[in-house]
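Box 3.1 — From sequence to structure: MoxR family ATPase
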Amino acid sequence: MTGPETISRIDVPAPEAQSIVRAAEDLSARVHAARDAVGRVIFGQSRVIDETLITLLAGGHALLIGVPGLAKTRLVQTLGVVLGLDDRRVQFTPDLMPADILGSEVLEEAPTGARSFRFVKGPVFCQLLMADEINRASPRTQSALLQAMQEHKVSIAGTYHSLPAPFHVLATQNPLEQEGTYPLPEAQLDRFLMQIDVGYPDLEAERRMLLATTGAAEAEIQAVMDADDLLAAQQLVRRLPVGETVVEAILTLVRAGRPESSPLDLVRTAVAWGPGPRAAQALMLASRARALLDGRLAPSLDDVLALAPPILRHRMALTFAARADGVSVDHVIAKLIEVVA
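Predicted structure (token representation):
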């Protein structure tokens, strides 16, 4: 753990620095234990586990994209147990209605004959919601989740109902089957802190997974944190100091991704629209969270560069001509990283 002298060099008052050090030492040990606990169940996906935990520590939502069978559902269920969160799962289908997620009001009649409406909460009233194959639901149902993700409350019949704290959405998408799907609008994509691409595990990890999951008994999942611990970690992330070099790197990276202000010819010709200010906010919070996950008290330039792909890839769109030429968003982001590396 980095000492308090590192914090004082970036102009944090000494009492505040000591407070951050004590809180970080306590919470960092619990976060490491949570990462290890998830890693004992999810094999060969250390990057995915880290990026998902960073998303939760930063207080955001994540979009997990990968082919079937890569333990996306298992990851969310495991995180719910390990972090001590109330988790729910909703399978998104074309006939899913907003009320199936948010809840609805039902008319009840008392023994006296008096009638009144009672609100029955939907599955969104949880701390960790898995939206499985979110792009298979209609735009109307997708938009029902938009307010909940952004404002942590829902409006039913003109009345606001607050969601539990913390509240996180981990949504999944299958990149293979696109028939009968409804692509998420840009406004909703921007609500996700990260787009996490889930790939195949390597040979050794798949070998361990094969042996561990086909035996007589599987590894037990145990809680190592609770909701209060996660809330405390999220508050601590916002208190971690950030050096001017990191701030400038974030601004340079995000602004270079916009065709109107980019110094790169590739961006000006290939990018239809670039990341907005929310991308810079996401990079700032996620870089702090990554530092805490690694046991450091302040983020570095390496944190910004490592998190640029999952934070920017769903906040940029290529022109039709660029796609026809085989240009990918990840290729553009790699060029943006070179600008600040």
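Summary of the box: The longest helix spans residues 14-39.
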